[in-house]
Amino acid sequence: MEYRRLGKSGLQVSALSLGSWLTFGKQIGDDTAEDLMKLAYDKGVNFFDNAETYANGKSEIVMGNILKKMGWDRSSYVVSSKAFFGDGGKLPTQLGLSRKHLVEACDAALKRLQVEYLDLYYCHRPDKNTPIEETVLTMNHLIQQGKIFYWGTSEWSAQEIMEAHMVAKEYRLIGPTMEQPQYNMFHREKVEVEFNQIYKTVGLGTTIWSPLASGVLTDKYIGQMPEGTRLGMAGLEWLKERSLDPHRLSLCRKLNTLAGDLGTSLAKLAIAWCAKNPNVSTVILGASKQHHLEETLTSLEIVPKITEEVNQRIEDILENKPKHPMF
User: Fold this and answer.
1) Could you give the C-alpha distances from 37 to 56, 256, 287, 310, 317, in angstroms and in order?
2) Which SS3 state, helix, strand or coil, does residue 117 take?
3) 141 phi, psi to nearest 5 deg
4) pLDDT tens by residue, the chain, 327 residues
5) Nearest-CA neighbor of 244 among 186, 320, 317?
């Protein structure tokens, strides 16, 4: 396993990590979740990603029970939570990034995960109803209390992240260390262009999600619609409609052929492509079956195969390389 610094911080996270969105506490049984976490940990994964809203808190309960059962040294792994959407409650005080919700959500996550602190704590979305000063001050306070070690954002714009840093600088507080954006072969603009200056200035770690575009960047949807996949789950019709675009599937067939030429799978190629980006701190993997995770955990071995020539073949297929602004 390769380890990378999280932005400009001293924290090192495994280049591949394991997330629990749509799986823990929902799509898979607890025993399967335990098998997946143990496999990941044994292969060198040290970051496990979670959030208050995943399965309305059940995901964190499942992960917490596994962490307690495994008894791994607390200094050997990194665990996260995120706050914004709540864990099921819809009252105004149960959502957003107010001081009240951030503190209460943090305490609830600590109980569910059965840990004394969160290594990473994210603002899951920007909150237009809460002053950025309140959010930054609250996150800094949680750090001072020892409840969290690093705080970050998820799906924030570059402008919103920089506003947080400006407030932190003005009040001599700790600003956000990392951002969790979607990043894959189909979704590139934010990571490759919008954040480009932030990497160079304040420094920004990225814990990217959906490297396989919800499973589309695999060979499973190239033929007929398979059963038992996340895109077939009730309530995710919006994700299925957005993901299974005929044009995307056509591109996947071409990329699958390229992966075959390299002696690998499309899934491993797609993950390796993400990991090859030097501004990606860790690629969050998702899995519902152990043999799928066994496969994707070996994706880093494909990175050297993505030469300039191979990368150009990928670009020729995708035809979506973001344009950098001219200064």
Assistant:
1) 20, 28, 10, 33, 35
2) coil
3) -65, -40
4) 999 999 999 999 999 999 999 899 999 999 999 999 999 999 999 999 999 999 999 999 999 999 999 999 999 999 999 999 999 999 999 999 999 999 999 999 999 999 999 999 999 999 999 999 999 999 999 999 999 999 999 999 999 999 999 999 999 999 999 999 999 999 999 999 999 999 999 999 999 999 999 899 998 877 655 555 655 566 666 566 666 788 899 999 999 999 999 999 999 999 999 999 999 999 999 999 999 999 999 999 999 999 999 999 999 999 999 998 765
5) 186
Q: Alpha-carbon distance 165 to 163, whole Å?
A: 5
In CATH, the number for domain 3-216+276-290 is 3.20.20.100
Asked about 54 being catalytic, the answer comes back as: yes
Q: Which residue ranges make up each domain of the chain?
A: 3-216+276-290
Full DSSP string of 265-295: -HHHHHHHHHHHSTT--EEEE--SSHHHHHH
Report yes or no: 161 and 135 within 8 Å, Cβ to Cβ: no
The pTM score is: 0.93
Active-site residue, selected from the candidate residues 41, 54, 122, 221: 54
